[in-house]
Amino acid sequence: MPVDLSTGIVPVFYRDVFEILNTHGLAKLTMDLFISLFESAKLSTTILAQIWDLSCPKGKPLTRADFYKCLTFIALAQQGKSIDERLLDNYTNKELPIPMIGDINDLGDRFIRLMRDNQCETILCFRYGDLCSLDTIQVELVPDKKGVLFRHFEYEVSSMDCGDNMKIQFRNALDEYSSHTSTVQYDNTNLQADSLKLFKASQIHINFIHQTIVQIRSGLQNYNKQSMKNAETFYSIEKQIQSLSTDTTEVDRWALGVNEYWSTIQKGLSQLPMELNAVAERITEQYKREDELISDHIDMLIDLLQGYKDLCKRFEIALANEQKTVQKLTNQRRSNTITSGTKSLDETLEKTEARLSEHENILQEIEKRNTHALKCVQLETQLVYANIESFIYILSSFGNSQLKLHGDLLQVWRAFCPKVSIIAQSYITNQTTANNTFK
């Protein structure tokens, strides 16, 4: 008798657990993965296997309802109850029990690691942080070298995994298709229209992301250039104020009249260049930080997106060429079948069978390669989406840079304003003293 949860009330917790696991491909969950995911002191392998058998129909992918049943039985098992379908009758019009499985985000991470260890073929099973921890690659610019005709640049690339011998490391490695042990087991269903539609939709979306981030980079570059101009402006203002403060021109009372403010201003201005120089320096530091952010991080992400765009173009061209080959072989097969009736029977059968066998082998090889190529593109697509997470780190770094800049400028302007006020106060004090003396 199948288990029915329609009479019970499904807790929000069930939905949360399902959503976080389904994001990573819950349909790929097998009994072995299920046992490894939920095994604990109170949940033995035997109990979890029993839960799986009761909840999941054999030979069918796991559904939301099936997974909810698993969670219900896990909660009952943790309460010390034996696994029995009849226990669900106690939850008619009641909320189903909630299992104790810890933090659901940790559960999602564990699920990813288990799928990675299980070598899932169509799910990358890596997040951005996981990818960053795999290896660190350093790219250093070698000092300029002048050739016979023009100056050229060289780069040194080293990896913590391969050192500086990356070419030697992969020189004799087979291509992915040749080295894949399960190539012969590939199913052609991945090349059906639905799979190609999903590829096309992902391609369009990533192209949109690529164009948008390119525009964002352009905006940040313009903003950064303006910041550098602002720094240069403040350096210029500092020099002009310094020039005013060191001016040695003697101004006669004939020109001043009753306005004796100039000498007070000139003395006070000598204190201001320091703050204006500090403003320019802070803006320059911010320019360097954000220039590094743009050149090292945004450019890298854009290069990755551009690389994916080029990959999709190559895949589409290869797919179109191989479809032409398939059509050509099909036409040849049809032609061979038609002309076979004009020759002797023995000769016709022998040659026709040989040609048909050769054509069939070529067609099968093309189908296998196309299927494998689509799987590779699927993993490359997931790799791109994993790296898009770096955009959040880029925005965070930009925000922190702006926060530091404006915090530093706030301190500088707080020191600047009192000095300007002192100039005015000094003049008022001097005028008051002079007036009292005159009286």
UniProtKB/TrEMBL annotation:
Segments forming a coiled coil: 312-369
Cellular compartments per GO CC: cytosol; early endosome membrane
Annotated keywords: Coiled coil
Alphabetical GO biological process terms: early endosome to Golgi transport; intracellular protein transport
Superkingdom classification of source: Eukaryota
PANTHER family from the UniProt entry: SORTING NEXIN-8
Entry protein name: EH domain-containing protein
Species assigned in the record: Didymodactylos carnosus
